[in-house]
Amino acid sequence: MSSSVIGFPRIGRDRELKFASEKFFKKEISEQELNEAAKSIRELNILTQKNAGIDYISSNDFSFYDNLLDTAFLFNVIPARYKALGLSDLETFFAAARGYQGEKGNVKALAMKKWFNTNYHYIVPEFEDDTKIELTGNKPVNEYLEAKALGVDTKVQIAGPFTFLKLTKFVGSKKAEDVEEALTAEYIKLFGKLAEAGATKIQLDEPYLVRDLTEADKALFKKIYEKLLANKNGLKVLLQTYFGDIRDIYTEVTALDFDAIGLDFVEGIKTLSLVKTNGFPADKILFAGVVNGKNIWKNSYEKTLNLLDEIKSSVADPSKVVISTSCSLLHVPYTLASETKLPAEYKKHFAFAEEKLTELNELSNITPELLDANKKLFEGRVDSVDEKVRARVAAIKDEDYVRQPSFAVREQIQKKELGLPEFPTTTIGSFPQTADVRKNRSDFRKGLITKEQYVEFNKNKIKECIKLQEEIGLDVLVHGEFERNDMVEYFGEHLKGYVFTEKAWVLSYGTRCVKPPIIWGDVSRTEAITVEWSKFAASCTNKPVKGMLTGPVTILNWSFPREDISIKESVQQIALAIRDEVLDLESNGINIIQIDEAALREKLPLRKSDWYSEYLDFAIPSFRLVHSGVKPETQIHTHMCYSEFTDIIPAIDDMDADVITFEASRSDLQILDSLKENHFKTEVGPGVYDIHSPRVPSVDELVGQLTKIREKTEDYKLWVNPDCGLKTRGEEETVKSLKNLVEAAKLIRANA
Ligand code: GLN
Ligand code: ZN
Prior knowledge:
TIM Barrel, single chain, 28 helices, binds glutamine, five-stranded parallel β-sheet, binds zinc ion, eight-stranded parallel β-sheet, 13% strand
C-alpha cells in the first residue's frame, strides 16, 4: 500500500522558523537569510518524509505565517492598504499578517480566526470590491521545483478555491458567487504553470466540506470544480478533506472527475458508513486518513488494519487505497527525539510528526512482529489507572450536577451577604506579569532560589497588588496570579495524571507555538493548589477576594487529551479535582470563586447537529459539577474570553454560575440583545475595555460604553470589569485604566 502525508510541521524541528522570523523582524538578519532558513526547514521536511518511505509528499505546505494568507497573496487578494505601503513582497505579506507600524505607514493586521476545530489560527483574507484576482505569485511552483531538486516529485498542496472563498471576508458589496469565475480561471492558470514546471499532482485542501453545507454552498462547489476538472492540464487532482466527514456532499464529490479523494476516517464519524453505503468509484484513488494527524498517541495497528480492511471491502478497487494521515501534521509536535527527560515507558506510547511517518510506513508494510509489538502497547500504560478516581466518577449522582437553591434565591442571599455596591467593579484575575515576577518563577524552577524565597516574593507581590486595588477602589479584589504563567500548564502541573514535555511545541498562529500538557492517566488533586495564595490575599484586606481557578473544560481543551477513555470521562475527572479545590477555598473563607472557562467555546463541534450530543451535553454539566457543592452565600463567577456565544446562550446560562464576565469591548454589543431575548439569568460583566491593547480608556469613554451596556441590560445586575486578565499589560497603563474604570462606575452609580 502506498502512503501519504497531508502536510508537515512548517515551524521546523527546533522551531527554527520562529527564531529566524524574530531575528528578521528585529532586523538582525536579512530577507535572504530568512529565506535560507526557510529553505533548510523545507528541505529537511521533504527529506525526512522521503527517508521514512512516504510515497505522496506535499510541497507548498510551508508558510512564513499562514497557508491561507499565502493563497490570498498567490492570487493577488491583497487589501489596498497593505499594497500602498510600498514594501517588498515578503514585507507586504508580513504587514497583512502582523500589522505594520513604521516610516511607510501604520496599518493593523488582518483578522485571525480559529482553523476549524484546531487550536491553530488562520489569517482571514479580505476581498475588496476592486480586488483583481490574478495569479501573481509563484510560491507553489518554486517549492515544487525545490523538492524536485531533492529527487521528490511532490503533490503540490494548496487551499482549494471553495474553502478559500468560504473563509474570505468580503468587505464590499461582492460575494463569493460574484468572484468564483475569476478565481477558478486563475486556479486553472496555476494548474498550467505547475504542469509546465513538471508537476504531476496537485492536492486541493477543502476542509470546509466537513461543515454543514447549504444548497448554495453545494452549488458553488460543483460550479467551481466542474470547470477546474475539465482543465486539469494533465495534472492528477487530489481533493483533500479533513477534520470530519463530508456527509452533505459525498455523492456529488465522488461523481466529479477527481483522480483521488482524501477522506478523514478518524474525526469523520460518518466517513466509513458513507463509503459503505454509497461505494467509492473504481476510477479514483482513496486517500484514507487513518493515522490521526492531531493526537500524540501511537496508532493502534490492529484497529487501523481492521479499518483498512473494511474500507477496502467497500470500495470498487481495493488496490486504489492509499494510507494517509487524517489531517496535516502541522497540529502535532515535530519529533519525540527531542524529549530527553520523558522515561522510556512513557515515551513508547507517543508518536509525534516524525514517528507518525514510521507508523505510516509500518502499516503499509506490516509484519507479524511489528503488529505484535504494537499490540503490546495497548495492553496498558504505567500509572494511568487510579481506581479511586474511577470509583469517584462512577459514583457521581444526577443531583451532583445541580446546585441548590436556585439562582434567584442565591442571588438574594449573596446580595445581603456580600453587601456590594451597585455595578460592582472587579478584574478578571491576573495582574501585570513584570520581569521580576517571571524571574521569580524561573529562578525557582531552575533551583536558583528556595521555596521559601519563592513564596516570600509572591506574598509581597500579592500584598502590593491588594494594596493597589484598594487604592484604586475596586470592590472585589484578586490575588494577581503571580504564581502562574499559562493557567492550564499551572493546573496541569499540580494535578496527578499529567505529564510534561520539553519541546512538544505546536503551532498556534504565525510562528507562535504552545506546549500543551499531556493528560496521561486518571486525573486527581492530591493537595490544595491555590488555597494558600488566596487565603494570604484575603488576610491583607477587609474587602472580598475572589478565588481564581480554571474550569475542567478549558483545562481539557488546552491539553493533549487521552484516547483510552472518553473525553467526557476525562472532563469529569478534572471537574472532581477542581471541585475539591472550590470546596477548600470556601472552607478557608473565600466566598467568591471564579472558575474560568476561557476555552469553552473552542471545541464546539463543526456541525450544529453535533453541538449538544457530542459536546455541550457533558461539558456544561461538568462545569456545574465543579461548583454544585458550595453554600448559597458563596458566589461563583466564570469568565469566557470571547463573546462569540450568541448561538449557545441557553447552554452558557445552564452553567448556573452567579456571574459571568466576558469580552465585549471590541464587539458590537449585539450579544447583550441576545442575552435579553434568551432571558439570560446569570449576572453579567461585559468587559468595558480592551486589554489586548496598551491604550488607556478615558473616563468619558468608559461611561459611554457602560451607558450603552446599561441600555441593553436594564433589568440586569451589571458588573464593571475589563475584558480579560491583565497579565500581558504594563503596570502604568493598568493602574490608569483601572482608576478610570472605577471612576466611571461611580458616575454610573450616581446617575442610576
Ligand atoms: N483568570 C485568568 C487571567 O486573568 C483568565 C485568563 C483568560 O481568560 N485567558 O489571566
Ligand atoms: Zn479571557
